[in-house]
Amino acid sequence: MPDEQQLIIESPVGLLRLRSRGDALTAIEFGAEGRVRDLAAVAGLSLALQAAITQLGEYFAGNRRVFDLPLAPRGTEFQQAVWEQLAAIPFGETSTYGALARAIGRPGASRAVGAANGANPLPIVLPCHRVVGADRTLTGFGGGLPIKRQLLTLEGLRLEGDKVLPPSDGQGLLPI
Predict the structure, then answer these.
(1) Minimal CA–CA distance to 87: which of 140, 127, 142, 130?
(2) CA–CA distance from 155 to each of 23, 132, 152, 171 (Å)?
(3) Per residue, what are the HEC states of 110-128?
(4) Phi, psi of 22 (to 5 degrees)
(5) Euclidean distance between the first and the last CA atom of the chain, given in angstroms as a whole number
(6) How far is CA 143 from CA 34, 42, 54, 62, 122, in A?
(7) How far apart (Å, rounded) are the C-alpha atoms in residues 128 and 142?
(8) 40, 45, 67: which is closest to 55 by C-alpha?
(9) What is the separation of C-alpha 25 from the centre of its chain, rounded to a whole number of angstroms?
């Protein structure tokens, strides 16, 4: 089995634990506890962790909209299909559980899509924070709704309470 590595980094949404196996990123976990890695000392880190550190830093600085990382999330075939659709939601836009269910050819599976979304091991990179309820209400998020709100705001979306507001230019909301 390829070498597994992990480290904890600081971010604007709190401490994140990054995990890799071989040359692929396998997990990003919110609310990490432990010693923060000195990012000046990247020797010995997998290329996947080095790239993730760089790209997450660029994302949080507002300089990255698309991630280009080798990923290896573990999940069922259904979960993998949902996560693939998450990756297709553009920066600064949202989708719904129903739209994702239709996109994978399972229009009646909105709840199962929600469960797969909740099991996403690579939040931010596979942007489950961009999925909202059919009425544009913020729904569950593994990192908590305050972090979901923070990520959506970082991406330029406007919120009022727990709802994503329609964009004034007609952009930013995918079909419900």
Answers:
(1) 127
(2) 28, 15, 5, 13
(3) HHHHHHHHHCCCCCCCCCH
(4) 60, -130
(5) 42
(6) 17, 26, 21, 20, 11
(7) 9
(8) 67
(9) 13
DSSP 170: S
Q: Among 60, 6, 58, 69, which residue's Cα sits nearest to residue 33?
A: 6
- Whether the pLDDT of residue 107 is over 90: the answer is yes
Q: What is the pLDDT of residue 32?
A: 84
Provide the pLDDT confidence category of residue 176 given band limits of 50, 70 and 90: very low
CATH of domain 77-164: 1.10.10.10
Amino acid identity of residue 135, one-letter, is D
81 is written with which tokens? 């299909």
* Distance (Å, whole) CA 25 – CA 5: 9
CA-to-CA distance for 150 and 96, rounded, in angstroms? 18
Q: CA-CA distance, 129 to 151, in Å (whole number)?
A: 7
| Per-domain boundaries in the chain | 4-60, 77-164
Q: Give the predicted TM-score (pTM) of the model.
A: 0.90
Residues tagged active-site: 128
Mean model confidence pLDDT for the chain? 90
HSE value, Cβ hemisphere, 13 Å, CA-based, for 176? 8
Paired residues of 25 in beta bridges? 20, 71
